[in-house]
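User: Fold this; tokens only.

Assistant: Input:
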Amino acid sequence: TDGLVVNEGRLDLELWSEWAEGRVQRLQGSADLVGLELSREQSSLGLDRIAATFDWRGTLHAWQLDLDHLVMMSKRQLWPPGRLSLAWRGGKGRKRLQLGIDYLRLAEANRFAILMTPLDETIRRVLEGLAPDGYLSRFRLALDLDPERTARWQVSGNVSQYRQAFWRAVPGLGGLNLSFVGDQDGGSLRLGSNRFLMEIPRLFRDPLSAERLRGDFKWNLNPDTGIHLKTQNLAVVTRDVHTLSRLELQVPWDGQHPFIDMQTDFWDGDGSQKGRYLPAGIMPAALVNWLASEAVEGPANRSDVLDAASAVAGLTKIHFNPTRPGELYRLLTAPS
């Protein structure tokens, strides 16, 4: 790869081959690479060790590679042994690539992708900014390439302990478990967490946490506009309130000016703690201080809230629509 430099590394390799009609039909063996250091421009990647047994079979136009007992160690942290399978069916006309991964650490995969692959500059900035981490398992990807039509793909997998950094207007997240399935037209995403954390410094004064979070989303990717997420049932339990929301989220690829449309039903709320949930970043300071200090303390009864945002970073309006009696309703309709 252009610009990629192997600074250091020691490889021990054992290899067996099978031949037929003057061509290699199968390659088997084991590889153990220690002290690998790669760099390109300002990026670098170091692995203490990567080792696996391998089995390649087929021809140049149709082959499959299986890596078994795949172990990696980075910064003295050892990944559990896993398995990776890669298959290619090519030749003239339609081509198909299939990838299966039992287990992968996203932080290392992210650094590897930034360093090794010719990414679009926008995607590269997204990966560097969000710095996603977590544990990917049961990942499956199939990519169909046809000169007569747009590329088509299918993907599925699970991620545990997912987290990402706050970047531009995209929230920082932590403690998420998720499963996903879909293709180029869209798919579904299931979220769950027993220790959720969200950070939006431009909107909330402090990170928001939840004891439980559950939600089923529909998603789709648009090459021009970005990622679109929608759910009719996002349940969140915090130490201060229970909520059930309908949410629509549009995040552009550059991370700027995401759109949020949310309607929330909440109950069992502790009115004395509402200050932590106010979007102080886009509200006048005097109003924030008044709402945080003047409300009647104690439990808040059930109510509905509609939160429509043109952009998280530049929200101009928040519409409250209480439809049931409660402390929040009395607060927001007070003459002052």
